[in-house]
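Researcher: Structure for this, please.
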Amino acid sequence: MRIRSPRLNMSIKHDAEKSRFHNPILKEKIASFVEENGRGKFSFWDATAGNGGHLAFLKEKFPQGEFFASDTDPEIISLLQRDFPPESGVHLKQGNYSNAIWGARTFDYIFLDLGISSLHYDYFSRGFSYRYDEVLDMRLDTERGIPLHEWLARTQEEDIRNVLWKYGEIPQARKLARMISEHRKIKPILRTGELAEITRKALPPHPGKKHTSSHPEVKVFQAFRIHINQELEHLESAMASLPLLLNPKGRLMVISFHSLEDRIVKHSFLNLETIPSHDPLSRTAFIPGDFIRITRKPVYPEASEVEENPRSRSAVLRVLERK
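Model: Predicted structure, token format:
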């Protein structure tokens, strides 16, 4: 199924049409984990639908499946409603994957593609990327919370440092927080260009193999985005609730893009596979749980996928199955 081009509005970048059709990362791997499970008709929930790339690919490959899709961003749902109208058979709903969007319904497959969609970088003008000079908003759902520029204006310097350190793992977090605090005394930090300039002054680029070495803004923007949207808190909540929504032999498939996300997924899966024993006569402290890790080691994209979609270079896939 080819995703139809949306009718762009003023909040969308008109020169980013190509990214609307990017090749979804690890799509063949996701399909293989569905195929090997040997189900006939099945239910599949794409809980972070984004631009609909994975959803379109899987729906075409598995016409027998019943597909559900959701996203935190209301604007994304509006686009998906054009791509997947009611007659397509795809059930769409706006909401964060950590909430009970579908009530008590259970699924054969639940899929998470964490982080943010390419739409947020290349289409929506909310300040997710330092490559475009935009208002610093960074909210996935603009109906909730406050934009980043307001948070930067009212937050204590020490709290800014903590966010940079915790979510960006930036060694010079204190220096950057101090420069942000000093700059806002002169004028508010309202746009991405201003934040990027302050970042480059505090953390001079060091050309090297790592993308983040030559572009220190990457981790800074990541840290603020994660905080504004409470991404790790939602993920931790989801790792406790989503496995319970799987049918027997159902699978939870998660793609993460940085170590903070992957660490949560990895340890959550481990803790579900092996649980503490409460039997005082047991010879072991842990016993098998109700889940098993299908991927004993993380799955990475092929070199050809990374070449076609460079943003996927840090993608990691892990799969959990309910016994």
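Researcher: Any notable elements?
Model: The domain at 17-120+232-322 is CATH 3.40.50.150 (Rossmann fold). The beta strands are 43-46, 66-71, 91-94, 107-113, 246-256, 274-276, 286-288, 291-293, 316-322.
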